[in-house]
Amino acid sequence: MTLRRGLVLGGGGITGIAWETGLLFGLQELGVDVTEADAVVGTSAGSVVGAQVTTGNTLADLYAYQVSTPRPAPLASIGPGVMVGFAWSMLRARGELEAFGRLVGQWAVRRAAAGRTPTVEERFAAIRERLPVQEWAGDGRLLVTAVDATSGALRVFDGSDGVSLVEAVAASCAVPGVYPPVPIDGRPYIDGGARSGSNADLLADCDRVLAFTPVDRAFGPMRTAGQLLGSVPHLVVSPDADSVAAIGKNVLDPARRPASARAGFAQATAVAPLAREIWS
């Protein structure tokens, strides 16, 4: 019997992209190539990595970029003001997940309209730079998550609805209050992490699931990847102590990218036996 294997790539900022890339490359070097998954869910940072690995980019090339010296760039952060916006939206949502997405989404729209975020065009340029191939693979394997800022509902992009890969990934990476909501089909979309750091439940129909989650927390109505997968045989991997130290306090700091990638690569040694057991 052929097993249907799923790969979850969770959110976690610039350092999350680096850590996931290092982990994936480290596993591949140890003989566990999980990029061959039958289905890949990408949320925020994970949508970038998912887009990269499903469109033919080699992990060796992706890793080489992650460990290269970052170019000088404006430094973004999820600062106190943004955290207050998140907390106030969560409080007002009273435990309803879509209500939180709607409230934090509307707050993000107002913040962008006030000029407190980069422009949508600037974000598209940043996403294009991260995607060597900017077209969907066409096999339907990649599921990119975002949240409708008007309704709070989850939307999943897979390339079948005319939405470009750049638009989908930009929407999935639109951290509320830090980056602007992305307009798609006349509606604003924000980071898929406004529903879940992993959205792992989208792969609940798989026989085996590996979840790589830089930030995997249960907060308010949000659930961890393990909680979302329930009885599905799975392995959830989050940064170990060395990776946490490498990532640092600001997940959007490009200067932390090389160390985060190297830490993910090193962590693969401990993860490989467990990943191989699940994947086989």
UniProtKB/TrEMBL annotation:
Catalytic site: 44 (nucleophile), 191 (proton acceptor)
Domain of life: Bacteria
Motif (GXGXXG) on chain: 11-16
Keywords: Hydrolase, Lipid degradation, Lipid metabolism
Motif (GXSXG): 42-46
Pfam families: Patatin
Motif DGA/G: positions: 191-193
InterPro entries: Acyl_Trfase/lysoPLipase, NTE, PNPLA_dom
Domain PNPLA: 7-205
Keyword Lipoprotein: no
UniProt feature coiled coil, ranges: none
Protein name per its UniProtKB record: Patatin-like phospholipase family protein
Organism: Nocardioides conyzicola
